[in-house]
Amino acid sequence: MSKKITIEPVTRVEGHGKVTIHLDDNNDVIQTRLHIVEFRGFERFIQGRPYWEAPVLVQRLCGICPVSHHLAAAKAMDVIVGAGTGDGLTPVAEKMRRLMHYGQVFQSHVLHFFHLVSPDLLFGINADPTIRNIIGVAMEHKDLAVQGVMMRKFGQEIIKATAGKKIHGTGAIPGGINKNLSIEERDHFLKGEDPLNVDKMIEWSLGAIEFFRNYQSKNSELIDNMAAFPSNHLSLVRKDGAMDLYHGVIRAVDANGKKILHDVDPQDYLDYIGEEVKSWTYMKFPFLTEYGKEKGWYRVGPLARLNTADFIPSPLAQKEFEIYKAYTKGKPNNMSMHTHWARLIEVLHSAEMMKELLNDSDLQKNNLETKGNKVYEGVGVLEAPRGTLFHHYRINDQDLIEMANLIVSTTNNNTPMNKAVEMVAKEQMDGHALITEPMMNAVEVAIRAYDPCLSCATHALGKMPLEISLYNKNNQLIDRKRK
Amino acid sequence: MTAKENNQKNSKPGILIYGYGNPGREDDGLGNGFVEAIRSWVEDKKLTNIELDSNYQLNIEDADIMARNDIVLFVDATEEPIDNFCISTVEPSDSRVEFTMHAVSPAFVLDICQKIFKKNPLTYLFHIKGYQWNFKEDISPEGKKNLNKALEFIKPFLLNPGSFHSIKDDIAPCK
Fold first, then answer.
1. Does the pLDDT of residue A472 top 60, yes or no?
2. What pLDDT is stored for residue B93 in this prediction?
3. pLDDT averaged over chain B?
4. What is the phi/psi pair of residue A240, to 5°?
5. Is A138 on the interface with B (CB under 8 A)?
6. Which residues of chain B neighbour A139 with C-beta distances below 8 Å?
């Protein structure tokens, strides 16, 4: 008898995912699938709109990481207005955008670690769910919880100062920005009352890495082995091989570190990346076309970025990078749970970059915008918190968008997340007839390592429970559990 | 200076009105629209004890701004079958409400506020009925009517914050 287990969160509008696990008569896992309902209607929605609206309009797509969409669209529009493909902006424009981006990455990663991950680490993935959250952290480790809250606040304030406002920011425009950073704003972040200043953010970032490293050293069997599997890794890197979250060339390496995509121009991404469609999900499966659907899939995000980059261009993060790389003897790290470690190194890097940018007097300059000869097509790629984000637009003679193609980070990680679920399910569920809390937790933790964004475009109202349904091979429901 | 700090001299309780939702999704922006609509009235009345904020969703850092006020009014859209608008008292809750969600509930933020900042503001959630959720910036005509009714309802309480304790006497509670 074949059985199917479904884990399904519920949201108000759209943007949800579920896991189905198919068992055979012996309760062995025969197939797993992670279904994420990606909203594709946005690409059609934006057609017919003036191109200059895109950086603001795309923020409607996601209330979770609107800055990433804002900047990716702006980068694509830079190309269209003739401001170049990353090197044509004025210094103040590029640096304001970078500050906005590092603020976004910082606050997003902080939320993920302190709110979603640290409770798993502090209390164990099988602990009572009522304490496995940041409130549980607040009760047991108040300092960590306070750090999480205040680091989020700092990142949000950076975004507000650079994007102009928290909702539907307008900071980035085609060819530049619409505001610089005042001395007062700068000093607020550099010299703000403790703890809301950038030096404290760096100090706390270092503390978070130390916290994780200590945990990993005591729990290496879990952290090193859970959902670990070899894969390709893809991200932007700077032309000299440095980590660069805002701009660069696209590089991919295989599981052993061999370069399989050699620093190509993001404008040419379609020459190298294809998207496979599968009948059971709306979300596509990107892959490197040279290596085909079976061997060309890749991971994106913090783990991938620390595998593709040769070094990190900020001193404290570079030091941590060297420790991190030494753990795998310089080889790519294929351990999914080490994504948390990589993510915290990026938190530190983002904090360091924010400090460097805040101390740069270019941010107070007034030449905000560049214009050149208009072209009809542009691609904007950046490293969003969850991984590489592609925005691609084509306009017509009336300056209206006639084509849009977006590959979001969670889509890039579609195959790896499915692999992670499969590995954990086989390990946890084989031979088990019952749906147990530890089984659910293990699947959830494996997915969470990738920090997928399941709630595009709007926030969910009310609960977003996990639901497990058990079906026999005739699709008859024989059990259902929810938490 | 926060609204509360600004008004310590006249002892008015600090009130935070926090609307959340995505204004790029029609009526999902009713909470944000409420905040924008009441802003000019607050300024006209010189109600310096009132602090206004708005975002796509609530998150853990909002516990900080809550802790600096005595009364918190969250405003959100709802598609529940209610008449125009309703209000509910928010009690702290430590139950995590998400799978991989990156937003938290008013009850969760209040709980963080209590446990981290040791503050317990009187907290309400104001639900305004919405109807349309597409990729448009505008609130629907029906949603706008509900928004205006909600605005007129809340203004007397903002002028007389002491009456907030009886706010639920004047309105149908949310189910």
1. no
2. 84
3. 87
4. -90, 10
5. yes
6. 115
Is A6's Cβ below 8 Å from some Cβ in B?
Answer: no
pLDDT exceeding 90 applies to what percent of chain A?
59
Can you tell me the distance from the alpha carbon of B66 to that of B112, in angstroms, rounded to the nearest whole number?
10
ipTM over 0.85: no
From the list A57, A108, A458, the residue facing B22 with the nearest CB is: A458
pLDDT digit string, tens, across residues B101-152:
567 889 989 999 998 899 999 999 999 999 988 777 889 999 999 999 999 9
Residue B40: CA atoms inside 13 Å, Cβ hemisphere, count?
Answer: 3
Asked whether B150 and B128 are in contact (CB, 8 A), the reply is yes
- The Cα A90–Cα A106 span in angstroms is 24
Where helices occur in A118-190 by DSSP H, the ranges are: 118-123, 134-140, 142-163, 183-190
Interatomic CA distance for residues A17 and A419, integer angstroms: 15
pLDDT tens profile A59-116: 876 667 789 999 999 999 999 999 988 789 999 999 999 999 999 999 999 988 988 8
Query: Residue A183's beta-bridge partner residues?
Result: none
B60, B74, B108, B118: best to mutate for the A interface, most A CBs within 10 A: B60
Q: Does the distance separating the beta carbons of B112 and A149 come in below 8 Å?
A: yes
Strand order in the sheet with A3-7: A29-36, A17-23, A3-7, A467-471, A477-482
Q: Which residues contact B175 (CB under 8 A, 6 or more apart)?
A: B80, B82, B86
pLDDT, tens digit (0-9, with 9 covering 90-100), for A203-225: 999 999 999 999 999 999 989 99
Q: For chain A, what's the residue count?
A: 483
| Residue A54 structure tokens | 């895109």
Cα within 13 Å of Cα(A72), Cβ side: 34
Give yes or no for A383 touching B (CB within 8 A).
no
Cis peptide before A465 (omega within 30 of 0): no
Residue A114's closest CA among A155, A78, A157, A82?
Answer: A155
- Sort out which chain B residues have CB atoms less than 8 A from A142's CB and list them: 115-116
First to last CA, chain B: 37
Which residues in chain B are contacts of A455 at CB distance < 8 A? 101-103
Judged by CB atoms closer than 8 Å, whether chains meet at A60 and B25 is answered as yes
Q: What is the pLDDT of residue B134?
A: 77
- CB-based contact B100 A114, cutoff 8 Å: no
Pick A459's closest partner by Cβ from B96, B103, B111: B103
Flag if B112 and A134 touch (Cβ within 8 Å).
yes
Greater confidence, B84 or A140? B84
Chain segment A113-130, per-residue pLDDT in tens: 988 888 888 888 777 766
Whole-number Å distance between alpha carbons of A305 and A127: 31
CA distance A402 to A375: 13
Instruction: Give CA–CA dist A166/A164, Å, rounded.
Output: 7
Which among B72, B71, B12, B75 has a CA at the least distance from the CA of B46? B12
